[in-house]
Amino acid sequence: MFVTFDDDDKAYLRWVDDHPHGFVVNTFRNVNPAYLMLHRAGCGTIRGTPARGERWTSGDFIKVCADSRQNLEDWARRIADGGLIPCKLCHPD
Question: Within 13 A of 57's CA, how many CA atoms are on the CB side?
Fold first, then answer.
C-alpha cells in the first residue's frame, strides 16, 4: 500500500514523521519514469525546509510514500513503467 501527497505538505510531513522507517519517491507531478528518486523517510533532502521553492508537494513535484520499499517498486513498475533511483545521500538500499 502507498499514499500519494499532492498539494498537501502538512499531511506529507506528518507522514514522514509518523513513518521514520518508511520510504518516499520524489517524482514529477506528471510522472516520468526517468525521475523516480527513492529516499528513506528520514532523508534531509525530502523533509524540513525545502532547499528550492517553498513547498514539498506542489509545483512540479509530488511524493509517493510507503512503509515498504517493495510497494514503491511495484508502484513504479505499474504506474510509471520505470525503476526507482536510490538517493545517494540516504542510501535506501
Answer: 21
